[in-house]
Amino acid sequence: MWNREIKLSIFGESHGNGIGAVLDNLPPGEEIDMEQLLAFLARRAPQNGKAGSTARTEADTPEILSGLLDGRTTGAPLCAIIRNTNTRSGDYGNISSLARPGHADFTGHIRYEGFNDVRGGGHFSGRLTAPLVFAGAVCGQILERRGIYTAVHILSIHGVQDTPFDTVHPDLQAAAEVKRKSFPVLDNRQGERMQVEIERARLGQNSVGGVVECMVTGVPAGIGSPMFEGMENDIASIVFGIPAVRGLEFGTGFAAAKLTGIEHNDGFYSEDGQVKTKTNHHGGILGGITSGMPIHFKVAFKPTASISLEQDTIDYKNNTNQKLVIKGRHDSCIVPRAVPVVEAAANIAVLSQLLQHHKG
Amino acid sequence: MWNREIKLSIFGESHGNGIGAVLDNLPPGEEIDMEQLLAFLARRAPQNGKAGSTARTEADTPEILSGLLDGRTTGAPLCAIIRNTNTRSGDYGNISSLARPGHADFTGHIRYEGFNDVRGGGHFSGRLTAPLVFAGAVCGQILERRGIYTAVHILSIHGVQDTPFDTVHPDLQAAAEVKRKSFPVLDNRQGERMQVEIERARLGQNSVGGVVECMVTGVPAGIGSPMFEGMENDIASIVFGIPAVRGLEFGTGFAAAKLTGIEHNDGFYSEDGQVKTKTNHHGGILGGITSGMPIHFKVAFKPTASISLEQDTIDYKNNTNQKLVIKGRHDSCIVPRAVPVVEAAANIAVLSQLLQHHKG
Amino acid sequence: MWNREIKLSIFGESHGNGIGAVLDNLPPGEEIDMEQLLAFLARRAPQNGKAGSTARTEADTPEILSGLLDGRTTGAPLCAIIRNTNTRSGDYGNISSLARPGHADFTGHIRYEGFNDVRGGGHFSGRLTAPLVFAGAVCGQILERRGIYTAVHILSIHGVQDTPFDTVHPDLQAAAEVKRKSFPVLDNRQGERMQVEIERARLGQNSVGGVVECMVTGVPAGIGSPMFEGMENDIASIVFGIPAVRGLEFGTGFAAAKLTGIEHNDGFYSEDGQVKTKTNHHGGILGGITSGMPIHFKVAFKPTASISLEQDTIDYKNNTNQKLVIKGRHDSCIVPRAVPVVEAAANIAVLSQLLQHHKG
Amino acid sequence: MWNREIKLSIFGESHGNGIGAVLDNLPPGEEIDMEQLLAFLARRAPQNGKAGSTARTEADTPEILSGLLDGRTTGAPLCAIIRNTNTRSGDYGNISSLARPGHADFTGHIRYEGFNDVRGGGHFSGRLTAPLVFAGAVCGQILERRGIYTAVHILSIHGVQDTPFDTVHPDLQAAAEVKRKSFPVLDNRQGERMQVEIERARLGQNSVGGVVECMVTGVPAGIGSPMFEGMENDIASIVFGIPAVRGLEFGTGFAAAKLTGIEHNDGFYSEDGQVKTKTNHHGGILGGITSGMPIHFKVAFKPTASISLEQDTIDYKNNTNQKLVIKGRHDSCIVPRAVPVVEAAANIAVLSQLLQHHKG
Fold first, then answer.
1. What's the rounded Cα separation, in Å, for the pair D287 and D276?
2. Is the pTM of this model over 0.90?
């Protein structure tokens, strides 16, 4: 459970009856546009033919059980469920006790004393990001009505770079357009190169990783708190819940470690009564509190753990050394589908912080 | 407040009566060696003459008010306070309403509606890491008694690299030694080069950033949870509470985004009944749960925001554009003093997760 | 959300698509007997012809979406949903903006700014106790396997008293039997008198209240904490979430205020290595921590707020004074159906405390 | 820790270095009048010669370490400590392993595995209510500035009744006056009778219990939430943290169980645009949410557990049956000193709920 001003319970296992989310503490009376919500969810859903995407297709249409009436939030907990329909458990039969490297098979087995549902990754499955995206889509609509907009794109895949966002003078139109693309990059030429990398990995029964960049504009200054309840901490505590995330950096991030103070410090200036900075190395957050500049962070994703090349592993039931070849349907790069998941994470964290400081 | 299995309240302002911490939910009966605890705290304290360190010296001796009897935890909340003694408020008089770039002066002013204590950074001061280190030192002693050991060192300063930890076959003796060094690096030659960088920054009235590397050995497999209650999330939610942190990566981190699956996946093998991996790209955590391999992460610190070069800023009380020259005592690089702070953060998060899963 | 060692999210509105619960942090591998679970739920369900019960009948069969595999908990969040099927909204049409006295219509309207679902009481409906009972039934099975047994009965209705439990030498067989009764009292003669009171109230278009007594046996000594995290606090924080609850007392409760110390103090003695008390005025809890004696508490329920007699009220939309006659189906006494709800509350609180102190 | 919108950590042991509280999440800029605060604390402090009060006297002057500057809250955690000065440990030497009936000696010993500080009751001591009162006094001043006023008095001692509050048309002047009395009752004649009861108990080396009544006026309608996050739940979760509390009832409470619906329901009416009820059986709360009528509740206190009469007990170290005579200084009735503690609990819970719904 994510346990802040907003509470988010995500439940479900990949091959169980269903998955879903309960969002607690949303303000009442917020309009939720279902079409827009489904469009957001569709960006995460696997697509046949889409670069890097698994062949498994699912309706993934959430059913809202509570918390919404006549298109508006009631203020009571909002619960949505998504049925698991297209579940070919057979594919996973032969790996039931061989730990897939890079997966939580072994660690989950120890943690849950052998009782966890291992089919399709169970509660560890990337499929659990669907309710996370649902929650983030709801929060995003509430934020947009307050003039807050979250932009995301693929920043790199296997080292191929997209143009980064301008986080000082953000181009909101470009940010809106990139979301509508089937392959969300600013520079389509680089996007094609990325897709070549993904296709090469797929053909080699291998996989590749990448980085997602996220920027949130329109957040007023003064949202957050120092130390453990800051904006970074809240974003981090969701982002590290996304499967395959290995790193998170705000503003200039790790590169800041190589700079000097005069290079990194963002000078303030006042223009038309608005306080701004000339650069945005600080990523819109100082002391855990927003500065009014766009919030900016990057998230590193490891290459998909499921690959069809032979790997060394153990049978975790009898502790013997084994060889493993994973069959089945897998994304050779999960980064394109991770883009809306990162957006969702940002939306949830930012709305939660906003509500904590300006009720309603 | 850090609000997990262990609850940690850190209070205080830089120039108030005192600072401190309340640690709730520690197991009873744990021996706490005060000498070892003070030695840990001393590693964070500013030292005259130490590279990059402010000239302000303080006793920084914590007084334990509760939760400890005859050298053992009682199980009741453990509270320690540290008096503020050496506070030369005068130095800060002239910047009371000029926002120092890279600091939380402006964001804190908005957040707290002008009522926050701005003297010496107030509640945002790096001085607040002293009670964090206290808490981490207590947790570290409890972990060590369970065979868990946290190793930390400076990995880089302004681009100068130390030898990284071997996170597959950790050298515990080297890890123990590096803590005792006044400048905690594995390769002293590189440490000298780092100190040259720091001194150059100081002479130029500038500052430099760096990276701290942390490794926790001896954590049993199976500690943690998927999604929002994982080991990474808990570590992240403290680490991003340390002032000046800009990035956090686990295992291979951002570099993983450039690898392929077969390069990044860590094959499992069984040896003497113990499950291990041949490499440790996963940083000891899979699906939010420990694998039994060392937990491994890196933390990026920006260059110290307080520099004496002239900077553009605003007066946040009348919103006018101004020039600022910061006087006073400042670290030209906070990374050396951040090393025990990162260790403390790891100790708190790991002990909290451990207690959540194995009471007592 | 109930936010302790166990986390419990209850969602749903009376006339929405469905209601349900998410239980987080259950131990893995616990067997859940579905038949026993349904039998528990049936005790709360409205029954035609049962004294005091509404005529609305529902299947109320929970569908488990996640967290259970092959009859055992997986350790992942357990979610169950119950569809709303038999919803005759028409009955409620005429009271949509007349505040029913004793109900949350007016307070909910202010709290949710007019956006809450008011049909059938919405999220305030007593129907929401069904997922609470589901959660308590699950927890109860986990407790029973550890030798902990929760006994409940109607202690009084409209002043007619049942025999109280013997909380020093509990009669476990009688406690088990009383649950199986359609009208759960120890003394059937008194039960008949209570039913006469209920029937009289029904005929008079009125309603009556009562008291439920609860006792939990087999809880080991040493579970709980002083001050805010005690056993009483946790029980109270759920019990006061049950609609219509007006009071809660532990052990001798309010009557203790009339006693002297020598009358109220329970002397300890040791027998066969077991520490016991000769009386149980303390209700099995001292300083927030269990003593090993049965936990004992009583819960006061007000008379059902929905009555068909004419009442003074306001139209909360235009703030005019009005007369109200409530039509529709209502329990003239909710106490019989509240009995398993109180049991559920006890189960959840006690299991949560137990897991907090003895993991697994 | 009390873990709601406001977070309250209370630490300390009766004979340790000090006790105190950390209050997190107070709004910034709130004026705190220290004189008024000390006057509040003085009402809880033991007084020589005061009916029922222990002879132990302490300065009990809190030192504020953080969170307050120039008489206003800064918004950072507010920490206050109180030194333990007058600690005659000798008195307790002979009972170190004899469990005092009605105390947490035995349960605490099991819970903390023998490591808890038992001197003077340790963390279980009634002395820990001093920081609770401190916190409540701070919250009370913040509430008063918003027109919210908490009234408390002794409702009964050993069966002798004071006049109850009028919770429909509250007499605020009488409520203010009763606080200033050294023996806080509305009817001084009854107060004298109560003091006779206390004195009789003292002479008999015995003790007596009683009931405290609390009313909070001026709380706007619409504050709270249904189920687990309601106003009752929050009040209960603090009230049951006060030592010696055995029962809590809202509005008509347990007596409601003997009423019919038409007797108990409070009809609404509108007057001058204000919604009111003609009676206040509901205690100002419906569905967990305030109605705008005064919040009203009663708290039952057991007779002081420390009595000097001989009692049966065990030595919890060797599990032998023993006789116990408690020496030392004890209140023969804690109810008079509990009055400001109940007020403090109400203040904390109500302010927390208010801030949750109307930030700032």
1. 16
2. yes
